[in-house]
Amino acid sequence: MAATKIIAICQSGGKFEAGKDGCLLYKGGDAHAIDIDNQMKFNEFKVEVAEMFNIRADAMSIKYFLPGNKKTLITISNDKDLQRMVKFHGNSPTVDIYILIEELAILDVSNMPASRSSRTTLSEPVNTCLPDGDHDTNQIDTSMDIVHEVSPIVPLISSNDEKFAKGAQQWQNTITGVGQRFSSVHEFRESLRKYAIAHQFAFRYKKNDSHRVTVKCKADGCPWRIHASRLSTTQLICIKKMNSTHTCDGAFATTGHQATRSWVASIIKEKLKDFPDYKPKDIVNDIKQEYGIQLNYFQAWRGKEIAKEQLQGSYKEAYSQLPFFCEKLMEANPGSLAMCTTKEDSSFDRLFVSFHASLHGFQQGCRPLIFLDSITLRSKYQGTLLAATAADADDGVFPVAFAIVDDAESDDGWHWFLLQLKSVLSTSCPITFVADREKGLKTSIGEIFEGSFHAYCLQYLTEQLFRDLKGQFSQEVKRLMIEDLYAAAYATKPEGFQNCMESIKKISAEAYDWIIQSEPQNWANSFFQGTRYNHMTSNFGELFYSWAADADELPITQMVDAIRGKIMELIVSRKAISDQWETKLSPSMEEKLKRENQKTNSLQVLQSTCSTYEAQI
């Protein structure tokens, strides 16, 4: 997905001073640059900043100035704030961001107790070395102080080997000495990181590129060094020099504050595969127990996101694959419609899917009744799932179509969804749509499905009533009003409706007025012109929504495919069940018909005209 990109110059450690004109000037501190775009999530950005400045993600606030205004700092605290900031500075290549932190947010490792006595970790001679087989013939430069990267993690565990965390014990020999070979620089770095965890020391990179790595112990004066470089004409990395003696006392041991995302991901990936709901707080506890490393919540969350992407594929790539995915869906399911649209910047906008099996089943076997509802997705890029479901012959949920839209707050999303639904439904009879009246659907339904009806969802109507009246009633009073409101909705004659409304008026004249103005012709049986088959709420399709909720953390293509699989299973299982039916109607409907028939025994039937009868109790 294409995105608006901007360079954020993040500054921390300085202070603001007010100029004569009232503008704030930032002086001192450090600065780092990071690429951001309008698709970046706030938590990702916050963790990235925390790692850059070595501060706790939960103990900082992020501020910026609006263009042309240096007097008021604006806070970034969620995804929308971050997106607005990118939008406001869309005409500028950079934006200044200020990181304000609490005094205790910066880790102080100087007072941490020593966790390792001085020792030689390996038995090979200290000065053993091999000549580099490539262009790198430099000796380890002990005078070089440029730090490219600090060792990310060192455990807080006892110096006694028998107390080492179980998980770290297996890493004590990941580095064995001079001559050891690795398939890539990445493999060497990972092995070195694990080795440092197992032997409880911190290190820093002095050279770190695609063909050579030079590392020293982080403690000043400690002689521990290692140097590895690429073997000539190969991708193999070989340890060429190593001084394995430590003279430090472990005073530089830290928590896992700088734990790399990739390291956390590599640790949890297999468990995440078996337990998709593996929570960040459980990751924190498990890694502390297994490896003696204390992570914070955001490190665990970020590592989980990386592991999920490694297991499931890239979320961004999934969006770019949507056109091809839609094409293959329609190719494999003739008569179906799968289509997606993008915004002006080529980022994702909307996706609509309706399978031929669903369309054929609705038109041939369902009543002309469609429930419209939506759920917010928890996926990385959020969005909203819009769904159209129907009731099958046994009053079970029957999915008709669904969409994923990026503009759920706009009525345009529903309007677009109904346009696509209209294009695939060939039925000529009027359809009753049961939906929330607050989604701007009234106009769209009337324009797109001429002659159809919009029945307001009674549950949403009730919820809105008490929201608008702002909680002025006790729970007991609310219960009585809900009973009267539902009785008014189910009443078959205007007289019955009015009697129920009078009961509400005695409780609250304000509630009575609100209900009268809520367009009863769209929800009360005695006035509604369409047929809703006794279905009064739009949340009929909860089974379908649960499928989406179970899959909404997957990349969009996998989520759609998971829903497709559920629809397929539903159709197959219901066919198997209905094949056993021996009655004309479904067994549950036959039983319902019998119960209703028994109630007629006490009725007196009077003939009004040749073809009209009146039943009296």
TrEMBL record:
InterPro entries: MULE_transposase_dom, PB1_dom, Transposase_MuDR. It comes from the Eukaryota. Coiled coil: none annotated. SMART domains: PB1. Residues 19-104 form the PB1 domain. PANTHER family: F10A16.15 PROTEIN, POLYPROTEIN, PUTATIVE-RELATED. This is Uncharacterized protein LOC113872164 isoform X2. It comes from Abrus precatorius (Indian licorice).
